[in-house]
């Protein structure tokens, strides 16, 4: 029997209950910089120290964070369904919760990338990436993050995954950043679409669960159990 394919598209709100701040909280400011101004190739050219510091702080916060019940619910669905996670988050909390198929659209905080060869990606030991940390080719390492204005190399693979969804669950994203926000359009017409967010964006094509991720996903787990019991 074909297993149902659940595709989860997650955003910063999913990790909020782990204590990691969403991007657009506090007006999107970080030490008086707009997030968009520290997460661009131009910012890297202008002030490398600041950009490294910004991501070092985020990495340090991640080191002290744990997956929350919402991450764990998603991982638990692998017991009865095929589950693909496509996340805009750069943290590794899905993986640490046990999800085995996770695609990071916007990169990964725990990794660094060579500035001379984008395919050269290395794990970061600890939380700090410094000026003078070099790749084996001798170039400065940068955070392995897709910055504003850069291509999203994993987009087509993500679109392919969404195109085979039976159930699409969008959770914790304001759907403001493209192309990620357009991914849901790739779902087959007959796929069920659910959006979980305590402050949901306007998205008429979705069934809305207006609650925080842990509560919303727990109620979905109960639905799955009810369906499996044959009603
Ligand atoms: N549970 C679920 N959703 C929540 C919770 C929660 N506990 N708390 C907040 N939210 C929701 C907010 O209501 C909001 O809709 O999470 C969403 C977070 O939106 P953003 O901060 O815009 O985050 P996201 O959509 O992931 O941002 C997309 O933008 O900054 C860039 O590259 C960065 O990947 C990021 C992208």
In short:
The chain has 231 residues and is of the alpha/beta class. The protein has 8 helices and 11 strands. Adenosine-5-diphosphoribose (APR) binds at residues 11-13, 16-17, 22-24, 35, 88, 106, 171-174, 176-177, 197-199, 201, 212-213.
Keywords:
2 domains; 6-stranded parallel sheet; 3-stranded antiparallel sheet; alpha/beta; Rossmann fold; globular; SIR2/SIRT2 'Small Domain'; 8 helices; binds adenosine-5-diphosphoribose; 231 residues; 11 strands
Secondary structure elements and pairings:
Layout lengths: L4 E6 L1 H5 L12 E2 L2 E2 H4 L2 H6 L1 H16 L5 H8 L5 E6 L5 H5 L4 E3 L2 E8 L6 E3 L17 E5 L9 H8 L4 E5 L20 E5 L10 E3 L3 H16 L3
Parallel strand pairs: 1-4, 1-9, 4-5, 9-10, 10-11
Antiparallel strand pairs: 2-3, 6-7, 6-8
Helix pairs in contact: 5-8
Bound molecules: adenosine-5-diphosphoribose.
Q: What proportion strand?
A: 15-25%
Q: How many beta-strand segments?
A: 11
Taken together, the total number of domains comes to: 2
CATH superfamily of the largest domain, please?
A: TPP-binding domain
Q: What is the global morphology?
A: globular
